[in-house]
Specification:
The complex is a heterodimer. By secondary structure, chain A is α/β, with parallel strands linked by helices. Chain A has a domain at 1-76 and 194-247 and 249-253: P-loop containing nucleotide triphosphate hydrolases (Rossmann fold). Chain A contains eight helices and ten strands. In chain A, the strands form two sheets. In chain A, strands 6-7-8-3-9-10 form a six-stranded mixed beta sheet, with helices on both faces. In chain A, strands 2-1-4-5 form a four-stranded antiparallel beta sheet, with helices on one face. By secondary structure, chain B is mainly α. Chain B has one domain (44-244): MetI-like (MetI-like fold, Orthogonal Bundle), CATH 1.10.3720. In chain B, α3 (40-74) runs parallel beside α6 and α6 runs antiparallel to α8 (150-188). The longest helix of chain B has 39 residues, at 150-188. The two termini of chain B are 32 Å apart. Classes of the chains: A alpha/beta, B mainly alpha. The A-B interface holds A 57, 59, 77-79, 81-83, 85, 87, 89-91, 93-96, 104-105, 107, 134, 136, 150 and B 136, 138-139, 141-142, 144-148, 152, 156-157, 160-161, 163, 235-237, 240-241, 243-245.
């Protein structure tokens, strides 16, 4: 197994609210993301999936434990890690065209190279020629593809996806999953996806990690041995897909019952 | 809009024609129109003086309000400490400051512009401070993941995100600044539409006085409308931002 590009060691996150309340969201989460690997994190709602991803990306310092990227401690956001958020309409800058939004992630490159990289990124997400449009002129699915282009234009080592398709309709969601699967297969980044959709996690990943209820730890790991390339129309029909989905789902339900039993 | 103006003119004509109001107090529509035509030149130059003082004061207020508002909005400490200042200074009636302003700057454009700047500073400052303070968390986090430095963050994210609120502060300031300009002219006799109206009233030229008032009203409408149109063109995302948050 090659050395991990991203490693979380015994990470715990405790959030303190403005009213003085303190919530221990996660406790002792460890995971290693190998180069080019696709890993998903699923878990019952409230398990702190998004908080963990924020810690993994450098947006938030963990309360305990350590995150390292490329063998170095990660103390802040840094080049090489891109993040796509769920709410594209609060993440794409509405005062910039799609092209300028994408170019912001490549702004240190010389103009000519930047322009060609932006054009390439837009083509990869099937938004060719849409660079001069504004985010609010596009559909939700197109906006999220633009956010993907912005995340990938810098050639990251790790792409982090925080519930990226939760704000679009089911059909668009399937199409976007295939966009991501295709981009991942053709590029060389590792991906860390946080989602509450078990089918989506199984469909896209090499490994699925199941979080327990709060304070969360990783309670199960399921290796997804489905053939690639994966495509909605046939992958989801495979007997093996159905089995894996059921297996992960069972862990998630178990985790959810744990939280209900504790009454938190 | 046009309908409202037509109805107002109709009522005005009705009141003056029926003798409901004293002819010494209310000129007829036609007499006022004639006065506007007759004194078009001096009315235009009075309007020009008014707009000059208005623009000078508003420019100072905008520069000060946007820059200080941005500073205050970026830091919770600065926001809290400027709040007391805002509560103390904002209710001060600017006309009560005229004597001080005359002592400091003498009678003239500088004094008028200074008072206009003082009054219109507050809505711009308060709106900018608020606009900068409430920039969406995800916009800021996105900027962080894109490794933006301070200057890039301010110029490409914070100010554009705050711009719609800054613009509504400016929209208030545009009207407020004109009210103060004309009031100072009316009290201080420093020239412009206000002084034109004052002179006409003291010279018993009632139609002329109304001519000044009508021109002043038109100037106010035009500046307001012009600014709203400008904001709409420069900030096409303004109403989309609200929909997103």
């Amino acid at each position: 197994m090659p050395e991990a590009v991203l490693q979380m060691s015994h990470v715990g996150v405790t959030l303190s609210g403005q009213d003085g309340s303190v919530v221990e969201v996660s406790r002792d989460v460890s995971l290693a993301l190998a180069p080019r690997e696709f890993v998903s994190i699923v878990g019952p709602s409230g398990a702190g999936k998004t908080t963990l991803l924020r810690a993994a990306s450098g947006l938030r310092r963990p309360t305990t434990g350590e995150v390292s990227f490329d063998g170095e401690p990660l103390t802040d956001v840094r080049a090489g890690i891109s993040v796509v958020f769920q709410e594209y309409n609060k993440s794409l800058f509405p005062w910039m065209s799609i092209g300028k939004n994408v170019a912001m992630a490549a702004r240190h490159l010389p103009a000519a190279e930047r322009a060609s990289r932006v054009a390439d990124a837009l083509r990869l997400v099937a938004l060719e020629g849409m660079g001069s449009r504004y985010p609010w002129e596009l559909s939700g699915g197109m906006q999220q593809r633009a956010a993907l282009a912005r995340a990938l234009v810098s050639g990251p080592r790790v792409l982090m996806l925080d519930e990226p398709f939760a704000s679009v309709d089911a059909l668009t969601r399937g199409l976007l999953e295939d966009v991501v699967a295709d981009l991942w297969e053709r590029s060389s980044f590792a991906a860390l996806l946080v989602t509450h959709d078990v089918g989506e996690a199984v469909y896209l990943s090499d490994r699925v990690l199941v979080l327990s209820a709060r304070p969360s730890r990783i309670m199960a790991e399921v290796t997804i041995d489905l053939p690639r390339p994966r495509r909605q129309t046939h992958t989801r029909r495979l007997q093996r897909f159905v089995e894996l989905e059921a297996e992960v789902l069972e862990f998630v339900y178990k985790a959810g019952r744990g939280s209900a039993g504790q009454g938190s | 809009m046009a309908g409202g103006v037509a109805v107002s003119i109709g009522i005005w004509e009705l009141v003056s024609a029926t003798g409901l109001a004293n002819a010494q107090a209310l000129a007829s529509v036609s007499a006022t129109a004639a006065a506007i035509g007759e004194h078009a030149g001096s009315l235009a130059s009075a309007a020009g003086q008014t707009i000059e003082a208005w623009a000078a004061g508003l420019a100072i207020a905008t520069a000060g309000g946007v820059s200080l508002g941005t500073l205050a909005g970026r830091s919770a400490v600065a926001e809290a400490s400027t709040e007391t200042l805002v509560r103390m200074m904002r209710p001060l009636p600017s006309l009560a400051l005229i004597p001080i302003a005359i002592l400091v700057a003498g009678l003239g454009l500088k004094m008028t512009a200074g008072l206009v700047a003082f009054t219109s500073f507050w809505p711009i400052f308060i709106n900018t401070r608020y606009g900068v303070h409430q920039v969406g968390r995800l916009f800021l986090e996105t900027a962080r993941t894109l490794q933006m430095g301070r200057a890039t963050l301010l110029g490409r994210v914070v100010l554009p995100a705050a711009a719609p609120l800054v613009a509504s502060g400016l929209q208030v300031a545009v009207s407020l600044a004109l009210v103060v300009t004309v009031s100072v002219e009316l009290v201080g006799g420093t020239g412009g539409i206000g002084t034109y109206v004052l002179d006409a009233q003291q010279g018993n030229a009632v139609a002329d006085m109304y001519a000044g008032i009508v021109v002043g009203g038109f100037v106010g409408w035009a500046l307001n409308r012009g600014f709203a149109e400008l904001a709409r063109r420069v900030l096409p995302w303004a109403n989309r931002l609200e929909a997103a948050s």
